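Sequence in, structure out.
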Amino acid sequence: TLLLPDYSGNQMFMTLGNLMVDERAGLLFIDFDTGDLLTLTGHAQLLWDGPEVAALDGAQRALRFRLQEGWRLSQALPMRWQRLERT
């Protein structure tokens, strides 16, 4: 289970509305160095208030993501990225 805060200005409100209609959700994490992908699917629940929201400093709402399935795709992206140092 992941608990994600929602802060004013995140521009997520349309996404939150969609989740009120259909709780299925997916998360994608990209490893830019290797091109690996981690895909997580599950169900999301909106938390409008309560102790979990209060524990997230400054959050107006929270999203609880419950993992159903996940998989890693090794070297799925053909491109690689690197961080540039500021000069």
